[in-house]
Amino acid sequence: MNLNSLLARADIWRGRETSPQTTPHLSTGHPMLDERLGGGWPVGALTEILVNQKGIGELRLLMPALAHLSQEYWQAWIAPPHIPYAPALAAAGIDLQRLVWVRTSGDDQTLWSLEQSLRSGVCGAVLGWPGRADNHALRRLQLAAEHGEASGFLFRPRQEAHQPSPAAVRLELEHDAGGLTIHILKRRGGWAGAPITEIRDKRFEMRG
Questions:
Q1: Which residue from 20, 44, 114, 172 has the highest number of Cβ atoms inside 10 Å of its Cβ?
Q2: Tens digits of per-residue pLDDT, 78-135?
Q3: Secondary structure in 3-state letters for the chain
Q4: pTM value > 0.85
Q5: Interatomic CA distance for residues 208 and 206, integer angstroms
Q6: In this structure, which CATH number among 1.10.630.10, 3.40.50.300, 3.40.640.10, 3.40.50.1820 belongs to the domain 37-204?
Q7: Of 82, 87, 49, which is closest to residue 167 (Cα–Cα)?
């Protein structure tokens, strides 16, 4: 099934205007992270995950939420750098029959596919690896996520941390021998607090 056939089936947030009671969240599956994010991953909003290199455990962080969503909703993975490793995804509880992997031919097509998937109302989660995305493009994606009530996850280079972003949540990930360290750069409704350390699980990496 391609993106167009899937989609055929079926203003800007200001930090002081929302609260945990009025903003829907999806549990991350990690209790400490849920607490720091005010309930979990925001629904109808973007989350940016900034990494210094791909494949350090960023997908593992999303697996509990993606597995939960796949029980009822479609997921779209837009322009991942490598082919998703299907056996590991299935072992994590993701219904592969509800996962669409979209290969794009350039940044403009990637951003278009992300926007359409987020806006569709069909996808519970949309994961994207945009090569280039300025603040205007990110704002369009944030509005699309709001319209489609989808959880959008963008994987971007760590150096983009200094770029302004309308995303509701921004995380910076680092990996060393001790595991995966999560720095919360931005979240709705409060301060991020101290970094969180998680253990890496290689099963949930993508394979080239």
A1: 114
A2: 999 988 889 999 999 999 999 999 999 999 999 999 999 999 999 999 999 998 889 9
A3: CCHHHHHCCCCCCCHHHCCCCCCCEECCCCHHHHHHCCCCEECCEEEEEEECCCCCCHHHHHHHHHHHHCCCCEEEEECCCCECCHHHHHHCCCCHHHEEEECCCCHHHHHHHHHHHHHCCCEEEEEECCCCCCHHHHHHHHHHHHHHCCEEEEEEEHHHHHCCCCCCEEEEEEEECCEEEEEEEECCCCCCCCCEEECCCHHHCCEC
A4: no
A5: 7
A6: 3.40.50.300
A7: 49
User: How many CA within 13 A on the CB side of residue 30?
Assistant: 17
Model confidence at 136: pLDDT above 60? yes
User: pLDDT of 10-64, one tens digit each?
Assistant: 322 333 333 444 679 999 999 989 988 999 999 999 999 999 878 778 898 999 9
Identify whether the C-beta of residue 88 lies closer than 8 Å to the C-beta of residue 202.
no
Joined tokens for residue 102: 């979209």
What pLDDT, on the 0 to 100 scale, is given for residue 16? 34
Neighbours of 23 (CB within 10 A): 18
Other Cβ atoms closer than 10 A to 176: 10
